[in-house]
Amino acid sequence: MKVLVATQKPFAAVAVKGIKEILEGAGHEVTVLEKYAEQADLVAAVADAEAMIIRSDKVTAEVIAAAPKLKIVVRAGAGYDNVDLAAASGHGVVVMNTPGQNSNAVAELAIAMMIYMARTQFTPATGSEIQGKTLGIQAFGNVGRLVGAKAEALGMKVKAIDPFLKPEQIVAGGAEPVTSLDELYGTCDYVSVHIPATPQTVGSIGYDLITKMPKGATLVNTARKEVVDEAGLEKALEDRPDLKYITDVAPDNLEVLKEKFGTRVFATPKKMGAQTAEANINAGLAAARQIVDYFATGNTRFQVNK
Fold it and tell me: Domain 103-267, what fold?
């Protein structure tokens, strides 16, 4: 099978080497497309691809239509909103992600963000400690559980909510379950967001939720920018000068927020949650193994377009 590794933002060289070894060792042919300038380059490259590994690359309906032999796309990472799932399903293409491979990297970043804001972005101003504070985790999956464990180790009280988990599962994961988002936001000094961008979640974190947060609270977003209502966030920060926002996914109105609110707002220069050598390698190798397993056994365990 012909496998295309298409990464505008390339894997580390050691990851590419490992991907090739796994795929070629199983008898597959590998083509690598890195740092391509235009989406048209990807469209051209998929013409004879039967499988594809991507990172944040956009697999649109146009890309899928240009790949008549394509059978599987694996997104090396957890999020998959850069793939047109409906178009993939319409063409019989299986789409998978690699859950858990980037989780520790994202969790460490979330904790670092809390400390960064607690210490007023490392300016000389007096900050505060996160020990003794309450952390609310919105979505208690792979990343959320790791954030909770690290926060607890630092002396924080941890609460969580997840519509796909029973309360006893959240307790087993080391957190106190809450019954509503109002309760989570209303009782936590920090809220760490780990929900995907779906029709149900886009814009769901807005003025009403944010302004329920206690005095001096901080909202931490390492998920997707679309889940936060940016106009509602701006108004909340205006009406509540004690609140702070830090994100790994810069909002469209970032410059306005920075001008208005200074060190109460921070966004990383680019999405950095998975930007560690370990996560980079782990996700790439996992994607390669999933492709090998799919063609060898038909395993679709991590399929996201069922």
Answer: Rossmann fold (3.40.50)
Architecture of domain 2-101+275-297: 3-Layer(aba) Sandwich (3.40)
- The residue-averaged pLDDT of 275-284 equals 91
Residues 196 and 9: their CA atoms lie apart, in Å, by 21
- Round to whole Å and give the CA distance between 231 and 146: 30
* Model confidence pLDDT, tens digit, residues 170-182: 999 999 999 999 9
Q: Which of 61-70's residues contact partners 24+ apart within 8 Å by CB, and which partners?
A: 61/86, 61/87, 63/39, 64/88, 64/91, 64/93, 65/91, 67/93, 69/2, 70/46
Predicted TM-score (pTM) of the model is: 0.84
Both tokens of 198, joined, read 């779906």
For residue 306, what pLDDT is reported? 79
Indicate the burial class of 271 (C-beta count within 10 angstroms; 0-12, 13-18, 19 or more).
Answer: buried
